[in-house]
Amino acid sequence: MEHLEELQKLLGETRLEVERLVKSIRESNASQETVKAAHKFLKTAADRAGHLQAKHFPQKKTEETLSPGDRVTVNSLRAEGELIEITGSKARVRIGNLLSTVELSDLKKITDYSQAQAVNSMVNLRDLTAPGPELHLRGMTIEEAREALDKFLDSAIISGMKQIYVVHGKGTGALRKALSQFLKEHPTVESFRLGDWNEGGAGVTVVTLK
Fold first, then answer.
1. Cα–Cα distance between 33 and 118 in angstroms, integer?
2. Which stretches of the chain are DSSP H helices?
3. Of 68, 91, 90, 72, whose CA–CA distance to 81 is shortest?
4. Is 10 exposed, middle or buried (0-12, 13-18, 19+ CB in 10 A)?
């Protein structure tokens, strides 16, 4: 438990610092200096957390077959998620509200309680950064979508992403229009456009970050 508390303490300290960094990024209109400082800090925190997890909560090798519905660790993302489907050597995993496609070999099934606790702490740390370039907002109200997009933009720019895909669907177009207005006023956004035919078309907005 002592080791888990150490991991959770690191998470708490990291969250406070990230809040300060996000504020600084916004106030500076995402200047290169503030963004680089955020990248450096998060890399150090993630490396330290990864070391603690590997040292005190090593993953147990298992021959168990992965199946949809399993709780899994995505090793490359240091994140916990739910396995949705397997297609050949690829897997679709739900991490929070996001769906990510990863290599099946990148997954480990969570079968141990202490391991799950440690991974949950790592998931929380990973939540401070964007686990992938896609944000799915279909089915949300305008207010819910704005809040989710606002948080995702902060996470994406701290993670060093230059481009993200906001999946809002076509529908009546009301959600897309509301999000477009929101993006126009956001300090971390350089530009945005509707997706090309191979990017989801009018159901997706492609955002370039500063």
1. 32
2. 2-27, 32-56, 113-127, 142-159, 174-185
3. 72
4. middle
Q: 10 Å Cβ neighbour count for 159? A: 20
Summary mean pLDDT of the chain: 76
Q: Whole-model pTM? A: 0.54
How far apart, in whole angstroms, are the C-alpha atoms of residue 131 and residue 208?
Answer: 17
* Residues in the chain, total: 210
Dihedral sign, Cα of residue 42, residue 46, residue 47, residue 52: positive
Contacts 24+ apart (CB under 8 A), 42-49: 42/14, 42/18, 42/128, 42/129, 42/158, 42/159, 45/10, 45/14, 45/17, 45/125, 46/78, 46/125, 46/126, 46/129, 48/10, 49/7, 49/10, 49/11, 49/14, 49/78, 49/121, 49/122, 49/125
Residue 84 φ then ψ, to 5°: -95, -50
Q: Which of 152, 146, 147 is nearest to 134 (CA)?
A: 152
- pLDDT digits 0-9 by tens, 57-99: 555 444 458 889 888 888 766 677 889 999 888 888 887 766 7
